[in-house]
Amino acid sequence: MPEGKHLRATPFLPYLSFAPGAWVLPLKFSGGGNADGAKIMFDSEGNAWSGDNFLVGWQGHDDLWDGNLSKFAPNGGPLSPMTSGFTGGGLLGPGFGTAIDANDRVWATSTSGQTISLFDKTGKPLSPPEGYNFGGKISTMQGIIVTPSGDVWALDFGDDKVVYMPKGDPTKAKFYCQSTDGKPNKDSPCKLKGQFHLAIDQQDRIWITNALGDTVTRFPASDPSKVEVFPTGGHSGKGMAIDSKGNAWITNTVGSGLTLETKLRLLALKLTERPLTALDHAALQDLLNHPGLGSVSMLRPDGSPAPGSPFNPGSIWGAWAVSIDGNDHAWISNFAPGGGLMEVCGARTETCPAGMKTGDPISHGYEGGGMQLLVDASIDPAGDVWVSNNWQDPASCYGKPDEGVSTRCGGQGIIVFYGLAKPVRSPQIGPAQPQ
User: Fold this and answer.
1) How far from 284 is each of 63, 79, 141, 254, 290, CA to CA, in Å?
2) Which residues contact 317 (CB under 8 A, 6 or more apart)?
C-alpha cells in the first residue's frame, strides 16, 4: 500500500480483498417471463429455452405451477415476452420437461395443465389450445426427449406411465408401462415410482429415473415390453445423461435416503390423508437439514455400477441434474441453499487432470453468481454452463408467508458460467456430442 494512501492504485475499483476460489465468470440473466426456471435446452442457433414453473410475481406455492416458456439469446438477452413468456398450446406450469427437435421446434410438458405442448422456433404454439392430452389420458407430466429417429417420449409422473409419439405425431400416441391386471401402473413390470427424467443411449434403449425410488428402468425403444430395472445405489433419481461410452449418469437428490424419523412422519401424513405438498415439505426439510446429502451414480451399459458409484466427493448437496460435456465430464447442479455447480471426472479419464479417476471432483463446487436452489445444469455450443434458479426461499413455498416475502418461493434468473465446459452440439438429440 502506498504510504499515506488507503487504496491501491488499480485500473478498476473496487478490487478484491481476497483471491476467489475459482477464476470463473458467472453472470445472471432474467426477464422473458423467466421465474422458477427448470429444464434448459438449446436450439441450433444456441438460444436457450426453459420451462418456468411459476409466473413472474406469483405468490407461488408448490401446490400450483402456472408458468410458461422462456427463451434467451446466446448472450443472455431475453427473447420471449417480458412477464408472461411464451404462452398457449395448452401450456400451464411446465416442469422438468423441455426438448428441442431437429427442426428447432420446442416440446414442453405441463404439470398443472397435464398436457404436452409444441412451439415453433419463434414461440408460436403449434399444439391446440388444450394441448395434447389424448382425451384426458395423461396427468402431471415431467421429462420429455426427442430421439435421433424423431420419436418423442415423455413421462406421466402422476400416473406412472410412458407416452410415446412416433415421429412426434400425437395422433399415433401410445402408452407404455401400464398395468394390465387392474393394479396401479407402479406395479407394472417397469416398476416406475414417480418417474422424472429419461434419456436414450447409443443402442436405442430408453433409460428412466425414479424420483420416489432407488432404481432406473430401461427398455429398447423398439420393444418396451423388454423391461430391465437396475438399482442405482441412491435415492430420488432426478436427472440423467448418457456419456460417449454409453454409461448412464443419474443424480440422486437424497443420496443415501431420508432419515427414519422423516420416513415415519411421511407415513403419518399419508395415513391422515394430508395433501401432497405436506409430504413434499417434510422431505425437503430433511434434505435442507442435512448438508452433503445427495450423490451421482454411473451405471455401465450393462446396468452394473461403475467402481465407486454412487459418488459424492464432498460438495454434492441435493443433486438434481447432470449434463455431459464434450470431454465426458459430468456437470451436476445442487438443489440446496446457494446452489452449487460441480464438475466430475467422467469415463474418459484421459481428459481429466492427471491422476484422477472416474467420479473424482475436478471442481469442489463453483459458487456465487447469484445462484439459488438449482435444478438444471445445461451446456451450450460455446461450452458455457447454464444453471436455473428454481427455488429462492423454501419458507415462502408453504402455508401463508409474510406478505413481504410472499413472492420469494420461485427462483429468479438463469446463471451462465462462461467457457467452463467442452462444447457440445445443439440441439442435443440423444447423447451429447462434441461440437
Assistant:
1) 14, 33, 21, 9, 10
2) 291, 292, 293, 294, 334, 336, 340
- CATH, residue 99: 2.120.10.30
- Residue 73 is placed in which grid cell? 439469446
Q: Is residue 144 part of a domain?
A: yes
Does residue 263 belong to any structural domain of this protein?
no
Residue among 229, 206, 205, 225 nearest 217 (CA): 229
Whether 412 is in a domain gets the answer yes
Number of domains the chain contains: 1
Strand order in the sheet with 319-324: 319-324, 330-334, 341-344, 361-366
How far is the C-alpha of 137 from the C-alpha of 151, rounded, in Å?
Answer: 19
Each residue's pLDDT tens digit, 51-98: 999 999 988 777 789 999 999 999 999 999 999 999 999 999 999 999
Q: Tell me whether residue 313 is in a domain.
A: yes
To which H or E segment does residue 295 belong? strand 295-299
C-alpha cell at 60: 407461488
Beta bridge pairs of residue 141 = 156
Range of the structural domain that residue 355 is part of: 26-257+293-417
Record the cell numbers describing residue 181, joined without a space: 391386471
What's the first-to-final CA gap in the chain, in angstroms?
47
Predicted pLDDT at 51: 98
